[in-house]
Amino acid sequence: EVSTEDPETAFCTLANREDLNPEEGSIHHCLYQFTRNEKLTETNKLLCDVCTQRHYGPKKNIKSEKRYVYTNAKKQMLISLAPPILTLHLKRFQQAGFNLRKVNRHIQFPEVIDLAPFCTAKCKNVAEGDTKVLYSLYGVVEHSGTMRSGHYTAYAKMRSMNNRLSELVLRGQPPQASETEPVKGQWFHISDTHVQAVSASKVLSSQAYLLFYERL
Fold first, then answer.
1. Is residue 180 part of a domain?
2. Per the database record, which ranges form the USP domain (predicted)?
3. How many domains are there within the chain?
4. What CATH code is carried by the domain that includes residue 118?
5. Which of 36, 45, 87, 116 is 20 to 30 A from 149 via CA?
6. What is the largest CA-CA distance in the chain?
7. 84: region left, alpha or beta (phi > 0 left; psi from -120 to 50 alpha)
8. Is 163 exposed, middle or buried (0-12, 13-18, 19+ CB in 10 A)?
């Protein structure tokens, strides 16, 4: 679906992206790259119905003769609805010739992440005037091994109920971004039937495959 937006605000975000300067190898850099502004030119030009009608006339004449007008355009993937639970899936494989190879590189991720630089200026579920959309880490899935064999383990935080999150899920009321600290709790490492208490630094040093955040 293509919608007409004010060109001045179409690519605006809740917080200034240019102030980010994310470090390569971090989850911020991944999000920054995923939501970057792309130019669609040459073979990637966008089919423009307005341009086509302006040049060839009504659509009924276009379909019969298969004439279309393509134009240069800009594309950007941004978050239009801030979810109660944010799940980030890291692509941990790459093509190596005809084979797939696992990527073992450590990706830095924080306990609290701000999605505002990656949200549209009119993002839903965000209170008017807020310039932060904060999430607290509560779960991590880690994979050890290779593409052919390996083992999945998880880190989970035992914590008290997030009443602000309940209000968002049950009543759709966006929370005010006042809390900037992670939700307090104890981290545990779960591997099959073995469960062990661990520090937050241990969690943040893991080779994350899946990240789970809850809205603050």
1. yes
2. 1-216
3. 1
4. 3.90.70.10
5. 87
6. 69
7. alpha
8. exposed
- Full-model pTM: 0.82
Helices first, then strands: H and E counts in the chain: 5, 15
Say what percent of the chain tops pLDDT 70.
90
pLDDT in tens, 82-110: 999 999 999 888 777 777 778 888 999 99
The separation between the first and the last C-alpha atoms of the chain, rounded to the nearest angstrom, is 31
> For residue 207, what are its two tokens?
């080779």
CA 143 to chain CA centroid, nearest Å: 21
DSSP 169-189: HHH--PPPS---SPPPEEEEE
Please list, residue by residue across 1-17, b when 16 or more beta carbons sit within 10 angstroms of its beta carbon and e when fewer do.
eeeeeeeeeeeebbbeb
Please, which contacts does 187-195 make with residues 24 or more away whose CB atoms are closer than 8 Å? 187/155, 187/156, 187/157, 187/158, 188/155, 188/156, 188/157, 188/158, 189/153, 189/154, 189/155, 190/153, 190/154, 190/155, 190/156, 191/151, 191/153, 191/154
Side chain identity, residue 86: L
